[in-house]
Amino acid sequence: MLGGLLRFLSACGGSWQTSPAPPHAAGPPSDPASDSSASEGRDGLLWWRDLARCAAGDASAALVQANHTLEDQCRLHSAPPLGTLLAVLDGHAGHAAARFACDHLLPALLEAASGPGGVTADAIRDAFAATEAAFIAQVSSQWDTNPDLATVGSCCLVGVVHDQTLFVANLGDSRAVLGKKVGRSGQIVAEQLSTEHNANHEAVRQELMAQHPDDPQIVALKHGVWRVKGIIQVSRSLGDAYLKDAKYNTERIKPKFRVSEPFSRPIMSAEPTIVSRSLEPSDCFVIFASDGLWEHLTNQEAVEIVHNNQRAGSARRLIKAALQEAARKREMRYSDLMRIDKKVRRHFHDDITVIVLFINHELLAKGNAQVPPLSIRSALDH
To answer: Reaction(s) catalyzed by this protein (predicted)?
Structure first.
C-alpha cells in the first residue's frame, strides 16, 4: 500500500525521499513516555521542549515540520508584568507572516499593556492591530521588489494568563481547548475556548455573506472545501494583503491568488476574536495547537491523552498521536511516515505546533514574581 501511494505522489510531480536517521537514532523519534529526561531536543523534523516552569504553571511545547519551508512558529514568554504569553502561529503561502508575528506580537503586547489599564482584551486587540499594520507596511515597502509577500499570511492563536485570568485571542483556525474536571469523579472533559474563522463552518459563511451581500461568490465550494473567494479557507488572518486591499490584487501576484472582480472593502479581516475567563480550580490545562493537530484528533481525544499521561512530553505526545492517526488513514506504518522527508510529508499531514499549559492555581495566587523569567521559541531549521 505504501509503495502504491508513493508511486502516485511521484506521478503528481513529487519525488519520495527519506530523511536519514541521525547517528544517535536508528528509528523514528523516541516516545516521550520513555524519554522524559530530554527536556529540549530535536529529532529530524520534530522539535520539543518537554516541560518548563512558567508563571502560570508548567508548559510543554513541540512542533513537527511537513512543508518544504516551515510555516509554523511558536513562542512562550513568562515574566512580569505581562504574566504568561503563549503564541501559535500557523503561516500559509509562505513563512514570512508567521515569523513576523513571532517576532513582533510579543513586543506589541508588552507596549499595549504598559498603560494604566494593563492586560485587557483591548490591549491584546491593539497589539494584534499594531502587528498587522507593521506587516502590511512591510508588504507596501517591498511591493516593487517582492510582490509575493502580499499573498503571505498567518493564523495567530495567543493565550495570556495575567493574575488569575486567561485571555484567548484568535485569527484563523488554530484552536485552544481547555481540559477541566467535572463532577465528583473528576472526569476530564474538553471545552473549546477559541472561535475558528474557517469558511467550512456555516456560521463563518453566514458572517461573510452578511458582510458582502452584493457578492454572491464571497464563498465558493471547490473540491469539497469551502473557501473565501474560492481561494483561502480562513476568513481572518495576519497578512494576506491581497484580500484586504485591492491595490495588491494585480497581475503582479500569482494567478491563483487573484480576484477577478474589483473590490472596495477588505474581503478578509485582521480583527481577532478574544475571550476572557476567570480561571477556576477545576481548570487543569489548556492545549493551544495549529489546525494540523485537530485534523487528526478530536478535542476530547486530545485532553484525555494529556490527562492520562505524565506532564513532561505532553505536546510531543499529542503530535505523535496525530501522526499515528495520519499514518493509519493512509494505511501505512508510523515509522514509515516519520522517514518521509519534508515537502513530500505535506501530502500526509500539515506542520503541527502544540503548546500545553498546565495551570498551577497556587502559583497564580502568589503572583508571577515567584518564578524566574522564561522565553521559549521553536528551534527548527527552516
So the answer is: O-phospho-L-seryl-[protein] + H2O = L-seryl-[protein] + phosphate; O-phospho-L-threonyl-[protein] + H2O = L-threonyl-[protein] + phosphate
